[in-house]
Amino acid sequence: MKTKIFILCLFIAPYCAAQNWTKPLNISNMEGLNNQPDMTVDQNGTFHCVWAHKIVENFWKIYYSQSSNEGLTWSVPDDISLNTEKWVSDPHIVCDSENNLYLTYDYDVGNYLESLVYYKKFDGISWSDPIVVSEGMPESHANKLVIDNNDRVYCFWYRSINNGTTFYRYLQNGVWSDYYIPYNNNDYFAFINCTVDSSNNLHWIGAHHYEGQTAYDIKPVYFYYNYENDLWSEIVEFGERYSWYGFDIDLDTSYLPHLLWQEFTNDSIPPNDGTFYAYNNGTSWTTPELIVEDPKNQQIIIDTYNNPNIFDTEKSDDGQKIIFYYFLDNFWNGYIIDETPNAFFNLKTVKYNNKIFLFYSKSLMADEGQIFYSKMDIITNNIEITTSFNKFKLFPNPFTIKLTIVFEMKSNKDFQLKIYTIQGKLINTLINENKSLDKHEIIWDGKDQNGKEVTPGLYLVRLQSGRNILTRSVILVQ
Predict the structure, then answer these.
(1) 130 vs 17, which has greater pLDDT?
(2) What pLDDT, on a 0 to 100 scale, did the predictor assign at position 411?
(3) How is domain 389-476 classified at the CATH fold level?
(4) Is the CATH code 2.120.10.10 the one for domain 25-377?
(5) What pLDDT shows up at residue 436?
(6) 230-285 pLDDT, tens per residue?
(7) Span between the terminal Cα atoms of the chain, in Å
(8) What is the CA radius of gyration of the chain?
(9) pTM for this model (two decimals)
(10) What is the mean pLDDT of the chain?
C-alpha cells in the first residue's frame, strides 16, 4: 500500500519535482542475493523495510531493517522469519495506528504444491510466532498485504484452482475472518497491487482473462472493494494485447485511480512491450497512453500536486537503467536514477512527508544482489524544472529511406543520440559530442554503425544528456 498525503490541487499542475534524486544507498549490505523489498512507515516516521535473502538453493529467509531518519542510516539487518529450512519469499509489511507491524510471506515456495502464506506481528518488542493464514489451502502464494484506516489488515493470496483464483481474509481486533473469494467463477484472476482511500475502499489493479481464454488473453483490470456495502465492483478491462508484469495503481487527491502496466505493443515474435498509463478523470477513463517501449518493473506515484511519477527499468547497450518519467512541455521526460551492467528487480515506491522513496534490488554480479533506495523531494510548483532538451520529434514514422530527428538544446552539454533494437542492442551512434544551444536536425539512413542496412522492424531512438533521457520508437518498413 502506498502511504498518502493529501493536498487539494488542480490536475495536472505544472510539473515541479526537480531531478534531485539522492545517490542510491545500499541498505542490505549482505553477501549473496537479496531481493523483493517492501517497506512501510510508522506513525513516528520510522521506515521499516523487509526483503528475501538467499542462503542456499531452496533455502531463503526474510530480513528486516529500520531507519529513523528517512533512510539516511539503517539498522543491522535482522532475520525475522527464523526458519531453519524451506524457501520463503515475497515479504510484505504494513503498520497500524499504534505502530504494530504486520508481515506476510510465502512459505515453502520451492515445493509449489505445498506452499502456504504465513503471518507474523511485531508489537514493538518482539515478533510473534508464525501463523498460517492460508491454512488448509496448499498451493497458496503471491500474497498481498493491505491495511485500511481502521487498522483492518487484509491478506490476499493466489491459488491455481478454477483457472487461477484469489482468496483473502482480514484481521480485525486480533481475530482472523473466514476465507473469502471476491470473484468466485472460472475466470483467471490475480490481484496485483492495491491502494486505500479515505473511506477504506480498496482500489486494485489485477491480471484477468475469461474462462475459455489462455494466458495470452490476460489483460489488466481495475476493480474495487466497497467497504461500507461489503461488495466487490464489476471489473474494468484495459489493453489490447497480452499483459502480465508491471501492474501498479495509485490515487490522486480526489481519490481517482491512476493505472500503470506493461503490455505487448505488437504481434511480432518475439513481441515488444511498453509502459502504458491511464486514469479516471471523474467521468470516464482516459485512452491508455504509451509512455516508452521495452520496459519492465513499472511503478507509479501520484504526488501531492496530482502529477504522475512513473518508474521502470530499461535495457541499454551496457546493462540496465532505472528511469523516472515526468510530464513536462507536453511530453514525457526521463531521468536516470541508477544503472548497472547487470539487472534491477522488484521496484517499490512510497510517498511520505512530501517525498517519493524508491526501493529496489540491484544485481551486482551473478547470484548477488543488494537492496538500494533513493528519494526525491516534491518541490512546490513555483520552481521551474530544468531539462537539457525539448521538442524531440521523429518523422516520418514509419519511414522507408531516412528518418529525420529534430530536437532543441537548452544547455551546452555532452549529448548522445543512439539507435537500439527493441532487445536493447546498440545499432548506431548518431551523436556523441557537445552540442550548442540551438535546434538540431539529424538524419538516420536506416544503417548500422558499419554502414550496413538494418532489417525492417521496430527500433528505439534514445537521446541522452547526463541523466536526462528521452526514448521514442520508430518503424522501418521496406
Answers:
(1) 130
(2) 66
(3) Immunoglobulin-like (2.60.40)
(4) yes
(5) 65
(6) 999 999 999 888 887 899 999 999 999 999 999 988 777 777 788 999 999 999 99
(7) 48
(8) 23
(9) 0.88
(10) 90
For 72-131, write each residue's pLDDT tens digit. Answer: 999 999 999 999 999 999 999 999 999 999 999 999 999 989 999 999 999 999 999 999
Gap between the Cα atoms of 79 and 34, Å rounded? 13
Q: 449 and 429 in contact (C-beta within 8 Å)? A: yes
The predicted structure's pLDDT at residue 388: 60
3-state secondary structure the chain: CCCCCCCCCCCCCCCCCCCCCCCCEECCCCCCEEEEEEEEECCCCCEEEEEEEEEECCEEEEEEEEECCCCCCCCCCEECCCCCCCCEEEEEEEECCCCCEEEEEEECCCCHHHCEEEEEEECCCCECCCEECCCCCCCCEEEEEEECCCCCEEEEEEECHHHCEEEEEEEECCEECCCECCCCCCCEEEEEEEEECCCCCEEEEEEEECCCCCHHHCEEEEEEEECCCCEECCCEECCCCCECCCCEEEECCCCCEEEEEEEECCCCCCCCEEEEEEEECCCCECCCEEEEECEEEEEEEECCCCCEEEEEEEEECCEEEEEEEEEECCEEEEEEEEEECCCEEEEEEEEECCEEEEEEEEEEECCEEEEEEEEEECCCCCCCCCCCEEEEEEECCCECCCEEEEEEECCCEEEEEEEEECCCCEEEEEEEEEECCCEEEEEECCECCCCCECCCEEEEEEEEECCEEEEEEEEECC
As a whole number of angstroms, the distance between CA 80 and CA 169 comes to 23
Answer yes or no: same fold for 25-377 and 389-476. no
Cell numbers for 417: 543520440
> Is residue 344 pLDDT above 70, yes or no?
yes
Using CA atoms, how far residue 225 sits from 7, 205, 230, 235, 343, in Å, is: 24, 12, 7, 11, 36
**What span, in angstroms and rounded, lies between the C-alpha atoms of 222 and 240?**
15
- For residue 272 the three cell numbers come to 515488444
Q: Which residues pair with 219 in a beta bridge?
A: 208
So where are the chain's domains?
25-377, 389-476
